[in-house]
Amino acid sequence: RTVYVNGDYLPEEDAKVSVFDRSFLMADGVYEVTSVLGGKLIDFDGHLARLERSLGELDMQKPEAFDDLLEIHRELVRRNDLEDGMIYLQVSRGSAGDRDFIFPDPKEVKPTLVLFTQSKPGLADSPAAKTGIKVISIEDIRWGRRDIKTVQLLYPSMGKMMAIKAGCDDAWLVEDGFVTEGTSNNAYIVKDGKIITRQLSNDILHGITRAAVLRFAREAQMEVEERSFTLDEAKAADEAFITSASQFVMPVVEIDGVTLGDGAPGKVAPRLREIYLDESLKNAI
Length: 285
Ligand code: PLP
What we know:
Elements: E1 2-5, E2 8-11, H1 22-26, E3 29-37, E4 40-41, H2 44-57, H3 69-79, E5 85-92, E6 112-119, H4 128-131, E7 133-139, H5 154-165, E8 170-175, E9 178-182, E10 186-191, E11 194-197, H6 208-219, E12 223-226, H7 231-235, E13 239-244, E14 248-255, E15 258-259, H8 268-283
Parallel strand pairs: 7-8, 7-14, 11-12
Antiparallel strand pairs: 1-2, 1-6, 3-4, 3-5, 5-6, 8-9, 10-11, 10-13, 13-14, 14-15
Helix pairs in contact: 6-8
The structure holds pyridoxal-5'-phosphate.
């Protein structure tokens, strides 16, 4: 596999960054994951715009190659013969040579830019989309700037492990009784035909898939309400689902052991998945 590191395309065994890199020492880095279907990028512009925003919120410089990112993504797809899968991109504040809480002077340190591909044949035909997934709920103890896509992923990773230990697939995070989002996805419920998902704020990541799915839902005359919902409301919902760049729209059929509806994906989530995949493929670049 060929990996991109700071301007070079390298065999993965030669792709390295410094031990002083601030993403390694301080989780001082941001990332994006873009899906690839049929060799084309899904929602690329959205991911690029969010990357720019994450960098700005953290006073991080744009990498020199920022304007070439589309070309770099495409080159990695070409070099790795990627048909279906994803491209992971990470920018860190760089490596200053010493471990220090103070940000290094941007005149002296350049951001680190790394991209690599992960192949997932048949990504869009995931069997889980037919059966739906099971989630547990856990307390949301993450920091208060979840709108910035940082590489501080230890708690989401622990949450996923707790879910697996409980025989489930993923975890929903709950704060003051309200669902914020999933470990690596946005969370939705459906009640009486209405799609309900938490409003945008610093409490959740502004999902690129979320934005597209809500737009398509409204265009299809489906009713959408952006507001916080409680865990109890979710357990009493007709349907639930999650969205993310790598899972698209994925039905949720069980929350904390409580079965939703008849335990199979309902009508809304599968329909949204189909619309999202159709439209995204049409617009893929
Ligand atoms: N929420 C969190 C915490 C995430 O990590 C992610 C994606 O990784 C999402 C939501 C979904 O965002 P997107 O649709 O842009 O992948």
